[in-house]
Design goal:
The chain is of the alpha/beta class and 190 residues long. It has a single domain, classed as Rossmann fold (3-Layer(aba) Sandwich). Helix content is 38%, strand content 18%. It has 6 helices and 5 strands, in the order βαβααβαβαβα. The protein is globular and about 45 Å long. GO terms for molecular function: FMN binding; oxidoreductase activity. InterPro entries: Flavoprotein-like_sf, FMN_Rdtase-like_dom, NAD(P)H-dep_reductase.
Length: 190
Amino acid sequence: MPHIAIISASVRVGRVSHRVALYFKNYIESRQLATVEILDLMEYQFPLFSERLQFQKDPIPSALEFSGKVGKADGVLIVTPEYNGGYPASLKNVVDLLYREWQRKPIGISMVSNGVFGGTQVITSLLFSLWKIHANVIPAMFPCPQAQNIFEEDGTIKDKGLDERAAPFLKELFRAIEANKRMDGWDMKI
C-alpha cells in the first residue's frame, strides 16, 4: 500500500486550508487507498530558509525528520492557500529546504481560497518552483473555492459532490506513484 505525505502549508491562525488536508486524509484512509500522514507546517515552525538541508552543517532535528518523511513518501499532496496571488512563505521555505527528496516525487496540488477562483492563481509560481527541482507534478489540480463554506474544521464536507471531484484527482496521483515505482531503477542508455 502506498504512503502519502500531505503537506498542510498554512501557518495562519484560523486557517481554512488545513480542513482540506484533513478531508484528503479522511478520504484516502476511509477507502484504504494508502497510508497517510499530515506534515503540518504550523507544527514544524521552521526558521527561514538559509541553506538547503543537504549543505547545512548542523541542521535542526525537525528539518531532518521532515526530509525523511518527504523522502520516504510514495507521493506528496500539497494543500496550499492562496495569499495575494501566490503561495505562502512557509511552503516556499520547505520547497527550497529540500532538493533530492523532491526529485521525481509524484506531487498533487490542492489550492484553497475563500474566493471564487479556488486559489488557481497560486499554481503558476508553485509549479515553476517544483518543476525547477525536478518534481513530478501531476497534471490534475484540485482547486477549492470558498472553502470556508464547504469544509468543517475536522475536514468533513457539507457537499458530498466534492468526493466526485476528488476521485479523478487522486487517481492521477496514484497513477503517477505506480508509474514511478515501475520506473525506479530503470536507466535508459541514450
